[in-house]
Design a protein that fits this description.
Layout (H helix, E strand, L loop, with lengths): L11 E3 L6 E4 L10 E4 L2 H9 L6 H19 L5 H16 L6 H14 L6 H31 L7 E4 L16 H8 L5 E5 L6 H12 L3 E5 L4 H7 L4 E4 L3 E3 L4 E4 L2 H10 L4 E4 L5 E2 L16 H4 L18 E4 L6 E4 L2 E3 L3 H15 L1
Parallel strand pairs: 4-5, 4-7, 5-6, 7-10, 8-11, 10-13
Antiparallel strand pairs: 1-2, 2-3, 8-9, 9-12, 13-14
């Protein structure tokens, strides 16, 4: 039997010498498919901040692999204790770059724990960090596949899905979160049509989601964000799948700005609304969405996001990168541990603990 699995684009890999990273530069898509080499902490930080790499899982993976690559570079010139101090400095710097995505802090914390152990020499420490970063990437691939297999059960042949932003392969190390069930259903021979919100102001839905779905042969239609209401009122999709950058302990979910509006529309029109994310995105230390820090982006991303002036220089710009969808608007949350239903608190806590125990 032939292997019908989707082959997602490679978002991140080690350089041939293992002392740097090669990342797919997502600011160049869909016009150009180009890898960018990262060899310094400044370059890793810039890639995350500028959205060359983006999506909560991939941000965490990039930070982890970046720290490990830097450690390999430094291992030849310092002892283990000095290298551990360097790891702490890099970790503290990268953890601050994008505050809403909890996966960033989660991945960096894992490398800090590795660096805190005793080592005979700096090379042993560096290789332990590389092994942990590799495991974070492998775990993400497994979690994406499991999320896809759980949520694919929600899709029938011929169903249509609406999604917002990009929570596909480009946001992860695997086949994605919100797009994973679409890929799995396609592999199983089911026809699925996807409506991709354009996702303003940086158009991750049209530039990235539509690109990767088209590459995979999935039927995808792009709509601008303000067309979603008209679509849901005239020819509503069967289901909404979105990702998340942080899920609070009570099930409130922060995702790309515009997700909350889509959830309100879905509730009004009776369309089920699902959030798909790995347990690493669930933050049990954040009680509710009101406690999630919301990143604000540069006004220039709205004023002249792609070069041309689209708002007066004198006008003020309000540009939060994320909004929070209350748990009351969410039909279900899908993690690698299964489909969780309201009330989300106990289910999410059990899923996180189960994931930790299985690791």
């Amino acid at each position: 039997m032939s292997d019908t699995r989707v082959r997602p684009p490679t978002t991140i890999r080690w350089t041939p010498d293992g002392h740097g990273l090669l990342v797919l530069d997502q600011t160049r898509l869909p016009e150009e498919r180009l890898e960018k080499e990262l060899r310094t902490v400044e370059e890793v930080e810039e890639a995350i901040r500028s959205l060359r790499v983006r999506g909560a899982p991939l941000i965490g993976i990039t930070a982890a692999m970046g720290i490990a690559a830097l450690a390999r570079q430094a291992a030849a010139t310092c002892d283990a204790a000095t290298l551990a101090e360097g790891v702490e400095g890099w970790a503290a710097r990268l953890a601050r770059v994008r505050p809403t995505a909890v996966n960033l802090g989660w991945a960096v914390a894992r490398l800090r724990q590795v660096a805190a152990r005793p080592y005979d020499d700096s090379t042993a420490l560096a290789e332990a960090l590389v092994a942990e970063a590799d495991e974070i990437l492998a775990e993400d691939r497994r979690m994406c596949r499991a999320i896809g297999e759980h949520a694919a059960a929600l899709l029938a042949d011929g169903d249509s899905v609406i999604t917002h932003c990009n929570a596909g392969a480009l946001a992860t190390g695997g086949i994605g979160t919100a797009l994973a069930p679409i890929y799995v259903a396609t592999e199983q021979g089911r026809r699925v049509r996807v409506f991709a919100d354009e996702t303003r102001p940086l158009l991750q839905g049209s530039r990235l989601t539509a690109w990767e779905l088209s590459e995979a042969g999935v039927d995808v239609t792009v709509i601008s964000d303000n067309m979603a209401g008209a679509l849901l009122s005239s020819d509503p999709p069967d289901i909404v799948f979105v990702g998340a950058d942080r899920i609070a302990a009570n099930g409130d979910a922060a995702n790309k700005i515009g997700t909350y509006a889509l959830a309100v529309l879905a509730r009004h029109h009776g369309v089920p609304f699902y959030v798909l994310a790995p347990t690493s995105t669930v933050d049990l230390d954040t009680p509710s969405g009101a406690d999630i820090p919301i990143e604000h982006r540069s006004p220039e991303e709205v004023r002249r996001g792609f070069g041309k002036l689209t708002a007066p220089e004198a006008a003020s710009i309000w540009s939060p990168a994320f909004d929070v969808t209350p748990a009351a608007l969410i039909t279900g949350i899908v993690t690698e541990r299964g489909i969780h239903r309201p009330p989300f608190g106990p289910a999410l806590a059990e899923a996180v603990e189960g994931a930790r125990a299985a690791r």
